[in-house]
Every structure is written in structure tokens, then in C-alpha cells.
Amino acid sequence: MESSLRLNGGAQVAPRQAATRPSTVRSSDDHAMLRKAAEVSRDINTPRAGIYWTDLIASAGIGYAALYLAATHSHTGWAIVAGVVAVLALYRAISFIHELTHIRSSRLPGFHIGWNLLVGIPMLTPSFMYEDVHSLHHARTRYGTVEDPEYLPLALMKPWTLPTFVLVSALAPIGFLIRYAILSPLSLVFPALRKQVVERYSALSINPQFKRRPPEGDFRRWWNRLETACAIWAITLVGLVVTGVLPLRAFLVMLAVVSGVAVINQVRTLVAHLWENEGEAMSVTAQYLDSVNVPPPALLPMLWAPVGLRYHALHHLLPGLPYHSLGEAHRRLSAALEPESPYHKSSHSGLPVLARRLIVSSLRGGQ
């Protein structure tokens, strides 16, 4: 996922600040890089259903099993270990929502509904909250502008924005419960509320200025089915807790695990881009240079940037490439392009270096 795991319109970070230094990311396109990227990926752009299904089922299965152990184990130490495993596994499972937005359902039959049944509905993050939203982030004229739901110039904003940005995500499970257990049914009765729910509380985005358009046609029917299922599950979950069928401790552990997933994703979001654009349209190459790859030999990105998210910059060059092909595409491009190619400039060694860069930029440019 490229966006924050929180409801648009919830607690918000500061509005965009005027930059105190010129942007360094706008540039013309490097056509040699773009041509080579298309060339080396032609034979690896088909999603392999076996990989997708095996990865998803294993991640969700491990995640839910670990969640059960964390919620029921009497030994605090083992419960904590199980909770950490649950966070990492379910984070990987939920990250497939990013793949759903780029790969047509006809190329992976059944995967969209399968992901929603296994992950989207149980975790109250149905795919409609990302579908028709994330695509705007990849639009040539929208990336990095006020019309991009997934962009804020964090490097140019007030320094306190960064910790606030992360801490807000910890409230995600409460926000999801309110969204589906309360706002969904109420919005059926009050049209004005429904308009607000659709515009402000139905997108996984980080831009507080973003307002979502009402769904239409087949997508509206898909949205309504998923929202109904999520509302029923959310109301049932609250009812189970209130009646004591689901112990309060188990419920709190569930909230903590989902909160952990949201926080990890928010931290990853912080280092997915350099966040240095001031709102102007950018070339594809400039978008690439404002994005981040964290390739091997780094190992930890497998945990905090799973399902291909460690190749985020490459993904902006080849948004339709399946996650399991990004590593091979990166190896081919790294070998084929000259050392002076801009392609190499978006590779970084790890999260600490990227986080430090963002903090320093914020301290310099957002005061």
C-alpha cells in the first residue's frame, strides 16, 4: 500500500506549508530509462496466480493463527511474540490491496473477492477504499499535486507533522469500527451524512484536502456489497464484546494488532517518497526520483515493505508489473543502465537513512 492506513478526514496533519527552498525533483523525462524499463519487463509482466494465492493464504493464515494465540495465551511473553508475528503477517496480507488496484480481476480470477473475504472485510479495509483512489496517485498530471490523495510535502512541513503523522495511524482500528458500525447504517438514513461518508471517510489516503467522488455503475454495486458486509461484521464484533461472548482482553489484543499494522504501514509511507514536491505537476522521471527503492542486500525491507513495496520507485515506472517480478526487473535495469542513469539515484540503503533524511529536511524546510 502506498497510502496511509487511516480514514481520510480523520485526525489530520498540518495543511501544506509554503516551501522555504526550491523543489529539487522536477525534471524532464529520461527517455532511455523509460524505454529500457519497458523493454526488460516485457516477458515478466504476467501475474502468476499460484504465487499470489499461496502468499496471500499463507500470510493470512499465519496472521490469524498468531492473533488467536496472542489473544488467548496465558503467558505474557509468548502472547507478545505471537502478537508481533500477527502484525507482520497480517500487514503482508493487507498489502495485497495495492496489487488489486493495478491488476485487472480478469488476470487473476477470483483474487479480488478472495482477498476481500480473507482480509478486507475481517480487517474492515475493503478494497473499494483503495480502488479508484490509488490510480489518481499514478496519474501523470496529479502526482504530488493537491489532487493527489496520497501525497503531502512532508519534507517541507512543520517538524511536528512527522510524529503526528505516525501517531494518528494508531487510531485506525477505532476509526474503522466507527466508520462501519455507526456511520454506514446512519448514512443510509441521512443523505447529507452519506455524502460526507463517501467524500471524506471512504478512502485510504493521507491528503486531507482530497474528496472522493460518488461511485457509479458496477463499481457502486461492488462498493455497496463490500460496505454492507463490513457493517454487518463491525456491528457483530461490537455486539460480541458487549455481550461478553468475545472477552474484552481478546478484543483489545485485536485492536492492538490492527493498530500495529497501521503504524508499520504509516512508517513505510513516510519513507516511500522523498516528499519534496511543492504541488506542481512532475514528469515520470521526476516522480521516480521522488520515490524510493530499498533493494537487497538490505533484509528488513522484506518485513516493513512487503509485497514489492521495497521497489516503490520502480513501481512508479512500471505500475502494472506484478510484485513478484519487481526484483528481477530491478536487477535487469541495474545491469543494463549506465552508472550515470537517474535510475540508480532512487536506491537507498534502508529505513534509518531515509527517516533521517526526511527529519533533517523537515527541520530545515518546515520551520
UniProtKB/TrEMBL annotation:
Residues 1-30 are annotated as: Disordered. The keyword Nucleotide-binding does not apply. Residues 77-344 form the Fatty acid desaturase domain. The chain crosses the membrane at residues 51-71, 77-98, 110-130, 160-182, 222-242. Keywords: Membrane, Transmembrane, Transmembrane helix. It comes from the Bacteria. Coiled coil: none annotated. Pfam families: FA_desaturase. InterPro entries: FA_desaturase_dom, Fatty_acid_desaturase. This is Fatty acid desaturase. It comes from Stakelama flava.
